[in-house]
Amino acid sequence: MTTMHKLSFTRRYTMITLGIFLMVAGFYYFIAPFQLVIGGVSGVGLLFNELLDVPISLVVFILNVVLLFMGWLFLGWRSFYRSLYGSIVFPFFLFILEQFSPLPELPDDYIIAITFGGFLMGLGFGYVIKFGGTSGGTDIPIKILNKKLKLPLSYSIYAIDGIIILSGVILFYQTNGIAGGLYAILTMMIAGFVADRVVIGAKTLTTVQIITDSPEEIKQLIYEKIYRGVTMVPIKGGYSQSDKTMLVTVITRDEYYTIRNIIAEIDPSAFVFANPAHEIRGDFAYRMEDE
Questions:
Q1: Whole-model pTM?
Q2: Is the same domain home to 194 and 217?
Q3: Looking at residues 138-151, what average pLDDT do you find?
Q4: Helix/strand number for the chain, H first, E second
C-alpha cells in the first residue's frame, strides 16, 4: 500500500522551479518566435518588445514588481509572499535564455508552435499549481477585480487576457493577421487542458473521498486551511469488516496541494481517491485563496 507523504520544502520548491522553467521554455522557444501574444505578462512583454525594442525579460520583471506591490496594497501580505518567488524566477529564467540560448531552427509552422508551446507552458503551470506555487503576473489583477468589483474569476481572466490578446492582434496584424489571435487562443486552451491534467484531472472541481482512522483531525484542518465543507459517511470495510469513516469534500485544483498535505500530516496511510466533479449544485463558493 502506498502511503501519502507530506512534501518537503526542498521538493516543493524544486518542482515549482521546474514548472516555471518549463513555462519559460515553452514561451521562449515556441511562442515568442511566432509573435503569439497569449495573454499574461509574457504577452505584454512581447508587445513592448515590438514597440520599444526592449528585452521581454525586462518588461516582465518590471511588470511583476509593479503587480506585486498592487497585490500587497489590495490583497495583503499573504498575496505578496505567495507571488514573490514566481514573479522573480520567471523573468530570471527568461533573461538567462535570452542571453545564452539561441533559438532553434523551426519550420514556419504555427501548429508546431502552439502544440509544443502550449504543452510546455501547461505542463509547467500544472506543476506550479500542484505544488502550491503561483506564477504571479496577471493572477494579481484578476484577484483584485474579483475582490473589489465582485467580478467572477472567469470573467476577470477573460477580460484581462482578452485585452492583451486583442492588443497583440492589432500590433502584429501585418505579420499574423487575425489568425494570430486565434492561434493564441488555441495555445491557451492547450495549456489549460494540460495544466488541469497535471494537477488533478480534466476538471477544475474535484470530489475527494478520504477513508481514514482520523476523520475529526482531517476534517478540522480542512475547515481551517481551505474552508471547505466536509461530509462524514460511516462505512464498513468489506474485507476487514471494521468500522471506518469516509470524508467527502469538493475542492478546486488550487486547493489540491493543501488537502494532500493535510492528509499526509494526519494519516499517511489513509485511502484517498478523487473524481472529477462534472456538475455542482448548491452552496459551493469559488473563494479566493488570499482572503
A1: 0.72
A2: no
A3: 76
A4: 11, 4
